[in-house]
Write a structure and sequence with these properties.
The chain is mainly beta. The chain contains eight helices and 33 strands.
C-alpha cells in the first residue's frame, strides 16, 4: 500500500512524503528530511520532518481517531503517531523482535528482556557514580506505555537486575522512559513519562534494596502547570537521590518549565513554584533538558526552542529551600543557523561546569558548548565542541554528559553515518578541551541503530553508555564503553536473567 504524509511545519523540505510498503511497513530512509531542525527520516523511530516519533511510516496516515500524540524528547515539538501502523507492525514482527532481543547480545550492547513490541530501548540512559548500575529506558514499550530496565556490573560482566520497571497509576499511554536518572549510589531512579494523562505528564520514583526495585510513592505531577505540560520530558536527581527535577516542555503553550521535588522520610513533595527562566523569547520549550549538581543546589534547564530555535539554558540555585535564577540565560557563541541549544544539558558534581548540546547547529552537524562558573557568573569556556570523524548530519549534542569533576564530556550524535550513530569524548586540561580518541561506535549493532541517541558517564568519566533506539528493528539497545589510560574499549555484553 502507499501512504502519504504532509509536512505541516512550513519549513524547508518536501511538502509531501510518499512511500510504498510491502510486508513490514518501512518507508525509504531519509524521506521527509528538511534543512534546519534535526531529521532522520521516518524509519526506526526517527524524525519524519515534523518531529514525529514513528516506528514506520510518517504520521497522519489515518483518521484522528487512531492517532497518538507523541513528543520528541529534546525537540519541543509535538507530532502524531498512528496506532494502526503500530499494531500492524507489532503483529508482524513482535515475535521476531522478542526472539532477537533474547540473543542479539554480541559486543557490548545491553538489551532488556520481556520488552513488548518495538520498545526503542536506549531512548534514555543513566549511570550510577561508580558506573556499576545502568538504567536503559524504552518509551515505546507495550504500545507507548514505556518501561525501563536496570543492569548491574560485576567486573566487566553485566546482568539485568529484576524485571522491567513500569510505574503504576499511569493514565493512557504514558511514554514512561522518555527520560531517566539515577542517584550516585544507583539506589534511587526516576523515570519520566510526558504523555501520561493526555500529555499532563508525570515522573515515577523507584528505590532499590537488596537488589530489588520497588516504586516509591505515587507518581510526581507538579502543581501550577498551565495546560498539558508534558512533565517528565526530562528528569534529573541529586547525588543522594533526595532532590528531583522534572521538565515539562509544553507548559503554557510550549513556553515550558521545570518542577523540583524533595524527599524526606521516603515521602516526596514539590519544592516551591515551577522554575521558569526569564528573558525567554517565544516558544522556548524550557524543560527540554534538565540537570542537577550533586548537592541538588544548582539546576540547569534547557530550552531548545528559545528565540526561534536558537536555544538557551537557564541556571537556578537553591538557598534555604528557595530557588532563584542565577544570571542571564546561557547562549553559546559561534552557533550556525537554528542550533537548538539546550536540547541536552549536564552539570559537574560541584555545579561549576555546564555543558549544553545543540544538535541543529550548522545544518544538523550539531555541537556542544561548555560553561564555567566563577562565583555567581557563568562564562563560555573555549569554542563549541564538534567531534571529528562525523559523517553527514550527525546531530552531535543530541545528548550530552559530564563526569563529576567536569573534565570529561560526552556528546551523542545518533544520525552520524546514515543513522548508524556515534558518540564523541572530550577531555579538559587547564581549561582547554580536546577530543579524546576516535568516535565511539558499539559492537553488535543490527541495522542503523542511532547510537548516541542518549549518553551518560560514570562519576570518574571512565565508564560511558550510549543508547541506540533503532537497533534491531527498533527494539533498541545501549552500549557500554570503558576508558583505561585514555583509551576507550567496549565492555562485554550482559547475561540475561533475573
Amino acid at each position: 500500500m502507499t501512504l502519504k504524509c504532509i509536512n505541516s511545519l512550513g519549513r524547508a523540505g518536501p511538502s509531501v512524503i510518499s512511500a510504498t510498503f510491502t510486508k513490514v511497513v518501512v518507508p525509504p530512509r531519509g524521506a521527509g528530511k528538511h534543512d534546519h531542525l534535526p531529521t532522520a527520516g521516518p524509519e526506526h523511530g526517527q524524525d519524519d520532518g515534523i518531529h514525529n516519533i514513528s516506528t514506520g511510516p510518517p504520521h497522519r496516515c489515518g483518521s484522528h481517531s487512531d492517532e497518538i500524540k507523541v513528543h520528541l524528547r529534546r525537540r519541543g515539538v509535538w507530532g502524531l503517531r498512528p496506532v494502526r501502523y503500530w499494531l500492524a507492525t507489532f503483529c508482524m514482527v513482535a515475535s521476531s523482535i522478542a526472539a532477537a532481543g533474547q540473543h542479539e547480545m554480541a559486543g557490548s550492547k545491553l538489551v532488556g528482556s520481556l520488552a513488548v513490541g518495538p520498545a526503542e530501548q536506549g531512548w534514555s540512559v543513566a549511570l550510577s557514580a561508580d558506573g556499576g548500575t545502568a538504567i536503559v529506558a524504552g518509551l515505546a514499550d507495550n504500545k507507548l506505555t514505556g518501561a525501563a530496565w536496570v543492569f548491574t556490573r560485576n567486573g566487566v560482566e553485566w546482568t539485568q537486575q529484576g524485571g522491567k520497571l513500569v510505574g503504576t497509576g499511569s493514565v493512557g499511554q504514558a511514554g514512561q522512559g522518555s527520560s531517566v536518572a539515577l542517584s550516585a549510589d544507583g539506589n534511587t531512579a526516576v523515570v519520566g513519562g510526558p504523555y501520561d494523562n493526555s500529555k499532563t505528564g508525570a515522573a515515577w520514583i523507584y528505590t532499590r534494596s537488596g537488589g530489588v526495585w520497588t516504586e516509591q510513592g505515587s507518581k510526581l505531577v507538579g502543581g501550577g502547570a498551565i495546560g498539558k505540560a508534558a512533565q517528565g520530558a526530562s528528569v534529573a536527581l541529586s547525588a543522594d537521590g533526595n532532590t528531583a527535577i522534572v521538565g515539562g516542555t509544553e507548559d503554557n503553550g510550549g513556553i515550558g518549565a521545570a518542577w523540583v521535588f524533595t524527599r524526606s522520610g521516603g515521602v516526596w513533595a514539590q519544592q516551591g513554584d515551577k522554575l521558569l527562566g526569564t528573558d525567554a523569547v517565544g516558544i522556548a520549550s524550557e524543560g527540554s533538558s534538565v540537570a542537577l549538581s550533586a548537592d541538588g543546589n544548582t539546576a540547569i534547564v534547557g530550552g531548545s526552542g528559545d528565540s526561534s530555535s536558537t536555544g538557551a539554558a537557564w541556571v537556578f540555585t537553591r538557598s534555604g529551600g528557595v530557588w532563584t535564577q542565577q544570571g542571564n540565560k546561557l547562549v553559546g557563541t559561534g552557533s550556525i543557523e537554528q542550533a537548538g541549544q539546550g536540547s541536552a544539558v549536564a552539570l559537574s558534581a560541584d555545579g561549576k561546569t555546564a555543558i549544553m548540546g545543540g544538535f541543529g547547529d550548522n545544518s544538523n552537524t550539531g555541537a556542544a558548548w561548555v560553561y564555567a562558573r566563577d562565583g555567581g557568573s557563568w562564562a563560555q569556556q573555549g569554542q563549541k565542541l564538534v567531534g571529528t570523524g562525523g559523517v553527514g548530519a550527525a546531530r552531535q549534542g543530541h545528548s550530552v554528559a559530564l563526569s563529576a569533576d567536569g573534565n570529561t564530556a560526552m556528546l551523542g550524535g545518533p544520525y552520524d553515518d546514515s543513522d548508524i550513530g556515534a558518540a564523541w569524548i572530550f577531555s579538559r586540561s587547564a581549561g582547554a578541551w580536546t577530543q579524546q580518541g576516535n568516535k565511539l561506535i558499539g559492537n553488535g549493532a543490527v541495522g542503523h541503530a542511532e547510537q548516541g541517541y542518549s549518553v551518560a558517564l560514570s562519576g570518574d568519566g571512565n565508564i560511558a553508555i550510549a543508547g541506540g533506539i533503532a537497533d534491531n528493528m527498533v527494539t533498541g539497545a545501549a552500549w557500554v564503553h570503558s576508558r583505561t589510560g585514555g583509551v576507550w574499549n567496549p565492555i562485554p555484553a550482559p547475561a540475561l536473567g533475573f
